[in-house]
């Protein structure tokens, strides 16, 4: 499993619209083979800053399976106009994890 991580800066004043459109866009990402789950977290110190975490079975499920799909075009149409600047997306694999 890998985790996609992106810090999203939404244009100020557009936070509510973004959150509503994100909920709609979630159907597209969750329809992709290899998708395992995602969450969107809002920063407590900066109202227009969000953390997107997506779990994928492997890197190619995101970089090829999602990004080269019709679902991605719908995701992009709903969300990409909110970002300023456009986010850097990175992928991480778990080396160590400790949960209670």
Distinctive features:
100 residues, alpha+beta, 4-stranded antiparallel β-sheet, 3 helices, globular
Task: Walk me through the structure.
The protein is α+β, with helices and mostly antiparallel strands and 100 residues long. The chain has three helices and four strands, in the order βαββααβ. The chain has helices at 15-29, 59-66, 70-79, and strands at residues 2-9, 35-42, 49-56, 89-93. A four-stranded antiparallel sheet has the order 2-3-1-4. α1 runs antiparallel to α3 (70-79). The two termini are 20 Å apart. The model has no long low-confidence stretch (mean pLDDT 98).
Strand content: 25-35%
Average pLDDT, to the nearest integer?
Answer: 98
Q: What is the rounded Rg?
A: 14 Å
Which stretches are low in confidence, meaning pLDDT under 50 for 5 or more residues running?
Answer: none
Query: Which shape, going by the Cα principal axes?
Result: globular
Helical stretch tally: 3
Order of helices and strands: EHEEHHE
Identify the quaternary structure here: single chain
Strand order of the largest sheet: 2-3-1-4
